[in-house]
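Bug report (template v2)

What were you trying to do?
Predict the complex of my protein with zinc ion.

What happened?
Run completed; filing so the output is reviewed.

Input:
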Amino acid sequence: MSLLDLAEEESAKRGNVRVEAIYLKLGPLSGVVKEALVSAYELASEQTDFATCKLVIEDVGVVGYCPACEMDRAVESIQALVCSECGTPVSNVLQGRELQLTALELAE
Ligand SMILES: [Zn+2]
């Protein structure tokens, strides 16, 4: 299902109000490249009611659980999933795989 389908569905639920912006969370481990997502969106929305609707992408960092620190830590990089504080490999990636629609800004 594409972003536009989701946005259209939400808009329809609220009585076909115009959507002014779509807010997304995008993690580096989602496998989705931001630029590709934006250009695909622009192409898909061009001939629709969403042509003027903005796509606002929030980049989220990768966070994992560090067994040495015994807490959730940001990781060094997406190539090295280790604790940015102590260098221990994180045991569980908690955040960073998101491709999630978080909010819609609707016209009044
Ligand atoms: Zn650590």
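What did the reviewer find?
The chain is about 20% helix and 30% strand. The helical segments are 3-13, 34-45.
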